[in-house]
Write a structure and sequence with these properties.
By secondary structure, the chain is mostly helical. The chain has one domain. It is built from 6 helices and no strands. Helix 1 crosses helix 3 and helix 3 packs antiparallel against helix 4. The protein is globular, with a radius of gyration of 19 Å.
Length: 142
């Protein structure tokens, strides 16, 4: 039984290392290459098929700009990149901060209404960024 628990621990560690390397590799790729000028990055299938912007349109360029600390250009490409990034950082740092610093940060992601709020927010953003009237045109990718 002890051997099985050791294997689980090893697999969990290997999984974390593999994911870390994948994220690091993607980060280096996004830092070095500008998605606006290279064919390595895929184009949005939804935008290509319909001419409308999906909630993720401009995210690749936004990540590139964010890695270069150009926050204004990042927001101009996709407004959701900043709140999404902050939520991801919060999600993965919350347990560490609670454990190591003895904080008591709540787990918003464990609440049953959170998925509905996120989906509703993304749908509203999706609709508004496709309205060709000021101020909504500001939500379209730059």
């Amino acid at each position: 039984m002890q051997k099985m628990e050791g294997n689980k621990f090893w697999l969990k560690g290997a999984w974390r290392i593999a994911m870390g390397l994948i994220i690091l590799g993607a980060g280096i790729l996004f830092f070095v290459l500008d998605p606006a000028g290279h064919q390595v990055f895929p184009k949005c299938i939804f935008h290509s098929a319909t001419g409308y912007y999906c909630p993720g349109c401009g995210s690749q360029r936004a990540i590139h700009e964010l890695l270069h600390l150009n926050f204004a250009a990042s927001i101009q490409n996709n407004l959701l990149i900043i709140p999404a990034g902050l939520l991801i950082v919060y999600h993965y740092s919350r347990s560490y901060l609670n454990k190591k610093l003895h904080w008591n940060l709540p787990n918003f992601f464990g609440h049953k209404k959170t998925p509905w709020i996120v989906v509703f927010g993304i749908l509203i953003f999706w609709i508004l960024r496709n309205i060709s009237v000021y101020p909504f045109i500001m939500l379209a990718p730059g």
